[in-house]
Specification:
The structure is a single chain. By secondary structure, this protein is α+β, with helices and mostly antiparallel strands. 50% of the residues lie in helices and 8% in strands. The protein contains 19 helices and 8 strands. Strand 7 and strand 8 form a beta hairpin.
């Protein structure tokens, strides 16, 4: 059974088993996540979530919210930090798995994990283990969770978060099997948030964190779950995906040999990752000296899974009503990239710029199968000019992907840019230093 193989890996993994470059990458992912969480803390969805949690009994505690002096009980603090990390859609992605793992794993490890009085080496081990398990489930699904209308992060995330908790609570193999069995019953999260840019997507993150804490404790104290969650009659690939399209062997393939933590992509732009290759194509058009008035129309070639996120319904994508909707609009994001040659946290202040809407309406799409998707989130387009000439642009490996990575200096710049309006320069330096030396801090 796949869950037994995973459980053996989870229960036996030690810090010294993890290559040093994987630990280094894990700390970079943590730093990036804290930064986007600090920036995201000013979003209305986060402010409202804090109000809601304050209203709950037993919410008070000593666990810190990264962006302020607010403190809550560890589970609620971790949930808030996770909501903040995902609120701007600026958090990292394992592209092949289509899984935003660090917005779940960083809060559950750093916020909740530190309340357990365990070593920082054990916390780092938990973070890596969570990525290794969660990502493999996403890879095995072959994008079919999304095709069925589920948010892959919500499905993979409960397994990643539960894995991290199993490591931090030092569960044995049998207990880990039970925890994974429970996780399958807690998997949930639909993509209907796309209909109106609503807050349900960030709650998928919070649910994974809170439920994993419950699950791991249920398993620790003797409750038992199904073993056949990946191959049984009602396994997760059947219930949440298209089983005939999945490759279940990916769940355990090269476990402990090829480290999926190293395959995580860091976002350079705060928006849906599926659009990044197309944003870069639009920037390349601008750098060629092409003016907006020179363009008659642009046809983009988009893979099946991204279409539902960034292309449909197309008329609504041309004129997003909210910042969150804009982050899931390929035409609007391409317009921002073309005119501004970048997209940052300030890019969404004016959604009614005439030039953006006019340019957006020139963009259409065609369903396409990209050679690199979903390992990469590529961009392919043809711009038909008023002259009749056709200009083609192809971005095969999006910037920030593990095969085209951001440097540590670029990650640090992003972290500081996310944080500087919320916390002090001194606090920024302390966080950076603490994460860089995390395993050495007692």
């Amino acid at each position: 059974m796949y869950s037994e193989i995973l459980a053996q890996f989870i229960s036996s993994l030690k810090y010294d088993d993890i290559p040093k470059d994987v630990i280094k990458k894990a700390k970079e992912l943590m730093l990036d996540t804290i930064g986007v969480s600090i920036a995201g803390s000013k979003e209305q969805s986060v402010i409202d979530a804090i109000k809601a949690i304050k209203n709950l009994p037993n919410s008070k505690g000593e666990a810190k919210i990264w962006s302020s002096d607010l403190k809550f009980s560890p589970n609620f603090a971790a949930m808030i930090n996770g909501i903040s990390a995902h609120a701007l859609d600026f958090d990292d992605t394992h592209t092949q798995a289509i899984f935003h793992g660090s917005s779940i794993l960083t809060p559950i490890c750093l916020t909740y994990g530190e309340s357990l009085n365990i070593s920082h080496k054990q916390i780092l081990t938990a973070f890596v283990a969570g990525w290794e398990v969660g990502a493999r489930i996403g890879i095995a699904s072959k994008g079919s969770f999304h095709k069925r209308g589920f948010h892959t992060t919500a499905i993979c995330g409960i397994f990643g978060a539960t894995t991290a908790m199993c490591v931090m609570l030092k569960l044995n193999k049998s207990e880990c099997v039970n925890a994974l069995g429970f996780a399958a019953s807690y998997a949930s999260g639909i993509n209907e948030f796309l209909s109106n840019g609503s807050n349900s997507k960030v709650l998928h993150i919070a649910n994974c964190i809170n439920n994993a804490i419950l699950i791991s404790n249920f398993a620790k104290f003797g409750m038992f779950g199904p073993v056949s969650i990946f191959e049984g009659r009602d396994n997760i690939f059947k219930t949440f995906g298209y089983e005939n399209e999945c490759d279940k062997d990916e769940v355990t393939k090269d476990l402990g040999k090829i480290w999926q933590t190293m395959q995580v992509s860091t976002k350079p732009y705060p928006c849906c990752h599926f659009a990044h290759g197309f944003i870069e194509c639009a920037i390349l058009l601008k750098k060629d000296g092409i003016k907006a008035d020179d363009i008659k129309y642009i046809k983009c070639f988009v893979d099946e899974v991204p279409i539902n996120f960034i292309c449909e319904p197309l008329n609504d994508k041309y004129i997003p009503k909210t910042e969150y909707e804009a982050k899931f609009s390929m035409p609007f994001l391409m317009a921002l990239g073309f005119f501004d040659e970048n997209i940052n946290l300030e890019s969404y202040k004016n959604l009614s710029r005439d030039e953006l809407i006019t340019f957006s309406r020139k963009i259409t799409y065609e369903k396409h199968v990209s050679k690199g998707f979903p390992k990469y989130f590529p961009g392919h387009l043809e711009a038909v000019l008023q002259s009749g000439n056709i200009v083609k642009k192809d971005v095969f490996i999006n910037k920030g992907n593990f095969d085209n990575p951001l440097s540590f200096e670029e990650i640090l710049f992003k972290f500081k840019n996310c944080s500087h309006n919320v916390i002090t320069t001194e606090e920024i330096d302390i966080i950076v230093d603490n994460i860089k030396n995390y395993e050495c801090i007692s």
